[in-house]
Amino acid sequence: MPLPPEIKPNQSVPLLKALHILTRDGKLNQDSRRKLKQVYHLVYFIEPLLQDVLTKQENPTLVDHGAGKSYLGFILYDLLLKQLPQGQVIGIETREDLVEKSKALAEECGFNRMRFEHLSVAESMVSANIPDKVDIVTALHACNTATDDAIQFGLKKQAKYMVLVPCCQAEVAEVMRKNKAQSLSQTPLSEIWRHPIHTREFGSQITNVLRCLQLESAGYNVTVTELVGWEHSMKNELIIAKYTGQKRKNARERLDAVLEELNLNEMQQRFQS
């Protein structure tokens, strides 16, 4: 039976079945097709970054932070690193059962340069199992503060690139909600988040604005775009950060000013760089 046209010629069919992207009889359902399209788009953005890294060194390290079931890590390895003589993918995940399943699947597929570590955020920054420096950090649909964890990890490991698709960020919105009465008395801008649905939506947007300023203040050039069309996913914002060493001069001042203006001063530590 021929494979669906979305499946690329050199992809591992057993891997796609193990990830439940393909059914047992080699078909794609609508949900899997949508998920695969998102991951393919992310691979499209990551491939030139990997090629750039390869011009400087032969053995790149890509870390998928908050890997979950490691859809992204496995497909990146299958499509990009499997064809290379060197290079490794490391998945970091706090849920031990998912780590063990990913290890077993990597062994089954013969992906020898793929590793998985059961580590907390703090542990991942100091673990001897993780290189002192990494080349690319990815975080796909990293919920709430998991994107911030990936950023802190990338900063600590001096990552050349970070590729982030945030999801369900609620922490800033919760602080806005808590301080709403005070904010309403301080600034008319609080009308932007006075209604609960606006608190959630504006809190989510401002979280990513603060993350971009944080990265720029640490010497990264930041591009923000959409991952796929909105008809495929509402969690659609893609942040790509490239380390240049040139810090945006006013990024830290603007970040602090935004926190002050929106009554979010207690969030300063979260966005430290």
Give structural attributes:
273 residues, seven-stranded mixed sheet, alpha/beta
Descriptive notes:
- The chain has 273 residues and is an alpha/beta fold.
- Helix content is 44%, strand content 16%.
- It is built from 10 helices and 7 strands.
- Helix 9 runs antiparallel to helix 10.
- 38% of the residues are buried.
- Mean pLDDT value: 91
Strands of the widest sheet, in order across it, are 3-2-1-4-5-7-6
- Head-to-tail CA distance between termini: 52 Å
Give me the number of helical elements: 10
Q: How would the global form be characterised? A: globular
Percent strand equals 15-25%
**Number of DSSP strands?**
7
Q: How helix-rich are the residues, as a percent range?
A: 40-55%
One letter per element, helices H and strands E, the order comes to: HHEHEHEHEHEHHHEEH
Given helix and strand content, the structural type is: alpha/beta
Low-confidence stretches: none
**Tell me about the biggest sheet?**
7 strands, mixed
How large is the radius of gyration? 20 Å
